[in-house]
Amino acid sequence: MTVYIDPPTWPGHGRLWSHLVSDVSYAELHAFAEALGVPRRAFERDHYDLPARRYADAVSAGALEVSSREVVRLLHGAGLRRRKGASRSAAPDAQRRSS
């Protein structure tokens, strides 16, 4: 299982945030996040938002540190990128990708 995390540079709600992604499937991403204790409500379209204070936890659990640009490239390359406003029905079949 390989998931990726970018540096906590995204501001929001008075904090800085990282993005946690998979380049294989949403199922893989959800499993990693669950094992890390990240609530499902932190999932947004194609990634989890993690506050800066959880960055080291994700890396210790096995997330690979990459740039924000690399996060987007990985999502596009895997066919898992979901843009704002995209319908869920247009999203890739996560179950197909995880098998």
How many separate domains? 1
How many H/I helices? 4
Low-confidence stretches: 87-99
The succession of helices and strands, N to C, reads: EEEHEEHEHH
In whole angstroms, how far apart are the ends? 13 Å
> In angstroms, what is the radius of gyration?
13 Å
Please bin the fraction of helical residues. Answer: 25-40%
Number of strands: 6
The chain-level structural class is: alpha+beta
Average pLDDT for all residues: 86
Largest sheet: 6 strands, mixed
The shape, in one word, is globular
Relative strand content: 15-25%
Domain DUF4031: 3-76
Region (Disordered): 80-99
Protein name: DUF4031 domain-containing protein
InterPro entries: DUF4031
How would you describe what is shown here?
This protein is an alpha+beta fold. The chain has one domain (1-76). It is 33% helix and 23% strand. It has helices at 26-36, 55-60, 68-78, 94-98, and strands at residues 3-5, 10-12, 15-22, 43-44, 47-51, 64-65. Strands 1, 2, 3, 4, 5 and 6 form a six-stranded mixed β-sheet that branches. It is globular, with a radius of gyration of 13 Å. It starts with a strand and ends with a helix. Residues 87-99 have low confidence and may be disordered.
